[in-house]
Amino acid sequence: MLSAMGRTILIGALGGALSMAPAATEFQVTNNGTISYLFDGEANPSLTFQRDSTYIFHINTPGHPFWINTVQSTGLGNAYNSGVTNNGTSSGDLTFVVPAGAPDGLFYNCQFHPLMTGTISIETPETPPAGEPVITSIEDVPDDQGRWVFVSWLRSDYDTLDSTITQYNIWEFDNNEGWVSLGIATAIQDTAYTFLARTFGDSNDVGIHWSKFKVTAHTIDPKIYYVSDIDSGYSVDNIAPAAPAGVVASVGQPNAIALEWDAPDDEDFAFFRVYRGSAAGFDPSGLVPLSELLNHSFTDEDLAVGSAYYYRISTVDANGNESDYSREVSAAVLSVVEGMLVPGQYALRQNYPNPFNPSTTIRFDLPEASRVQLTIYDAMGREVRTLLWGEQSAGYQSVNWDGADDRGQPVSSGIYFYRLQAESYSETMKMVLLR
Question: Residue 22: its pLDDT value, please?
Fold first, then answer.
């Protein structure tokens, strides 16, 4: 019985399978007086052959002509003679040049059936070298911002010291441009190669972006080259963006809290998420964001007097990766004095923007009218500028520093500290001036 997959044909009588080495393989053959052959004791094994290949049967089966037939029969009219020389011999060589159009089912048969003991040696062709490189894996580069994979392949069999393979070219398929060359790897007779390849898109939480690759092996003759099978893989953005920094909460108008934070640094920035909690130390995980926005400021309006509100902010990139949450900031609308909102406690806020050039705003909270001193110091602890000195009313206060010292001269780039003293309260924070 013959069956096939691809270029492979199976020649057999009653099924079974028989593995053959790439060189001559000899079998002890017997016949038990029926139609069956026994190859090393196995009845009618299948023999696997390749189309366009040559096989030589060295036949020594006394009194038992060996036939390749189109059907399971001993009739001489069923012989398959295409590519077969000396079909039906019982002593000598039968050569079978398997045609490209050979059927998927053929049979070998014995014409007579008395008891017999003999040998059949089948000389199989050596596997020709495979010129085509074989892609073995396409793996995402870990811990990166996406758009990169490692493409690995086994070398061409002609990539040897005495061969003409000079280089490999790595290609990716683009829906608009077709096959695009990504780069060249010099052939250095390595068993396997790996190339860092750029992809045209990333997979994300929406779906997988499959990238198709192939590798070509080139000789010194531009007309002679070998092409691998096409394989697919995908890249992933493994790195979440940075959490928002410099988050400041303040009450600038009745019943509203204003949030501000630093502009994003990530190239693949998509938007911010603002989360609000009703208690200190709240966990935003699992909460629906209060807002998703592109700007790095947000005003939470129509808040209730007598309540405190807590906020944390995250950054989301173009591939859906969400950053860690920012530090928690809070503000409270606790009372109203002469139409102005009054904080519940003293607080010094992070300046904004930070880093800054040429000026920045410093905010602080006073729960009651207080004598206030707000002073700027350099990194050596030397006083640079006194911004405030005197009585300040209760409320959410702010003051601008223009980056100049007490003499009005611009100070140089560097790290500076600002210190607030109000009654018994004292706090110091750091800021950076970048000229």
Answer: 38
Residues 188-210 pLDDT 10s: 999 999 999 999 988 877 788 99
pLDDT at 130: 74
pLDDT of residue 160: 87
309: its two tokens: 């509100």
Contacts with 120 (C-beta within 8 Å, 6 or more apart), sequence order? 26, 27, 29, 39, 57, 58, 59, 60, 61, 66
Cα separation of 234 and 213, whole Å? Answer: 10
Burial zone of 67 (CB within 10 Å; 0-12 exposed, 13-18 middle, 19+ buried): buried
Rounded to the nearest 10 degrees, how much is the dihedral formed by the CA atoms of 56, 57, 60, 66? -140
In this structure, the chain runs to a length of 435
Rounded to the nearest 5°, which phi and psi values hold at 76? Answer: -70, -20
Per DSSP, the residues of 366-433 read ESS-EEEEEEEEETTS-EEEEEEEEEE-SEEEEEEE-SB-TTSPBPPSEEEEEEEEETTEEEEEEEEE
**Mean pLDDT, rounded, for 329-334:** 75
| C-alpha closest to that of 268 among 313, 314, 316, 234 | 316
Select from 417, 420, 419 the least CA-distant residue to 432: 417
**pLDDT recorded at residue 336:** 53
pLDDT at 110 over 80: no
78, 77, 86, 84: which is closest to 98 by C-alpha?
84
Burial class (CB in 10 A: 0-12, 13-18, 19+), 240: middle
Task: Please answer whether residues 49 and 9 qualify as being in contact, where contact means their C-beta atoms are separated by less than 8 angstroms.
Answer: yes
> How distant is the alpha carbon of residue 162 from its chain centre?
37
Are 40 and 27 in contact by the 8 Å Cβ rule? The answer is: yes
Reply yes or no on whether the pLDDT at 35 is more than 90: no
73 versus 421: the higher-pLDDT residue is: 421
323/212 Cα distance (integer angstroms): 30
Kindly list the structural domains of the chain, giving each domain's residue range(s) and its CATH number in brackets, ordered by start. Answer: 4-123 (no CATH), 134-236 (2.60.40.10), 248-333 (2.60.40.10), 347-433 (2.60.40.4070)
pTM (predicted TM-score): 0.47
Whole-number Å distance between alpha carbons of 83 and 12 = 17
- For residue 251, the SS3 value is strand
Instruction: Return d(Cα 108, Cα 49) in angstroms, integer.
Output: 13
pLDDT band at 126 (very low <50, low <70, confident <90, very high): low
Q: How far apart are CA 93 and CA 66, in angstroms?
A: 10
Tokens at residue 244, please? 């928002």
